[in-house]
Amino acid sequence: MRIAIVGCGYVFDFYMAMFPSHPELQVAGVHDIDAARTAAVRQHYGVCVYPDLAALLADGSVGLVVNLTSIESHFAVTKAALEAGKHVYCEKPLVTDLAQARELFALAEAKGLVLAAAPSNVFSDTVQTMWKAVLDGAIGAPLLAYAEFDDNPIYLMQPEMWRSASGAPWPYTHEYESGCTLEHAGYHLVWLCAILGPAVSVTGFSKMLVADKTDVPLHPADTPDFTVGVWVGNFDGSAMRDVSGLSGAAPVWLELMNYLNQKWPSVKPTSSARSSCGSTRC
Ligand SMILES: NC(=O)c1ccc[n+]([C@@H]2O[C@H](COP(=O)([O-])OP(=O)(O)OC[C@H]3O[C@@H](n4cnc5c(N)ncnc54)[C@H](O)[C@@H]3O)[C@@H](O)[C@H]2O)c1
Fold first, then answer.
1. Single pTM value for the model
2. Is the CB of 10 under 6 A from ligand 1?
3. Domains and CATH numbers, the chain
4. Is residue 255 a contact partner of residue 263, using CB atoms and an 8 Å limit?
5. Measured in angstroms, how far is the CA atom of residue 170 from the centroid of ligand 1?
C-alpha cells in the first residue's frame, strides 16, 4: 500500500526507521506546514514533498494517510483525509474532545474506511504474551490488573537538547502543556480494555507537582504532570459505555478503547501468536 505522511516532526523519524521492515508500505510523499521540516526530511530521506495537504489528498495512489501532526491538528487533518476517501492512522491521542472522536469514527464508518490511532502496543510481544496468558486461563480469573507508566523526571534530562535523526527538536513545552494523561494514559488503557474488556468506571486524580520544569512560559501553566487512576472493568467482557460522568481526558481515551474493543476483535492474538507465545511482532 502507498501511504502519505502529514507532519514531519520529532516522531516522524521513528516511523521512517520502521519502514524498511515493512516493504509492503511505500511512502508516496510527505507534507508539513513547516517548510523547514519538509526541506530537512527531503534532504535526509530523499522523500517526495507535496506542496500542501490538498495535493497530498489528491494523490489517487495513496490509500492511507499517516497523521503525525501536533495534537491540535489531529482532528482537521484526519477529517480531511477521511473525506478524501483515505484510510487514516493517527498518532495519539486521536483527539482531545469526545464529540470530535465520535464524529471521526462515524465518518470513517459511513465511508467504509479504517480509522486507527496510536498506541498500537497491543501488538507488542509483552502485551500479546499477557493476553495469551489470560486467554489460556494461565492466571485463572483476573480480579485486578495493575499498570504503571512513569515518565521519570524528564525535565532533568535536558529535553531541550533532544533532536531526532533528521534534526527535529523534541517538543518538550508542548508535552508539558498537553500533560501526561492525554499523552500517555492510552498506552495502558489500550491493552487493559483489549484484554479485559471495556471500562465500567474510572476514578482518577491528577495534579501538577513540579511547577518550574522550564523557564519557557507554558500555556496553560498548570497541566498535571502526575495522574493516578483506578480503572474498573467487566471481567466477563460485557460492555458498559457510559463515560458521560467523567471529566478531562479519561472519557476520550475510554471511548476510543471501547470502540477498539467492539470494532477490532481481530487484534486478539492469532493462533500462530498463541502457539509461539512471545515471538509475535506487529
Ligand atoms: N515526540 C515523541 O516522542 C512522540 C512519541 C509518540 C507519539 N508522539 C505523538 O506524535 C505526534 C507528533 O509528535 P511530535 O513529537 O513529532 O511533534 P512535533 O511538534 O515535533 O511535530 C509535529 C509536526 O506536525 C506539523 N504540523 C502541525 N500541524 C500541521 C498541519 N495542520 N499540517 C501539516 N503539518 C502540521 C508541525 O509543523 C510539526 O513539524 C503527537 O500526537 C505526539 O503525541 C510523539
1. 0.86
2. yes
3. 2-117 (3.40.50.720), 121-275 (no CATH)
4. no
5. 9
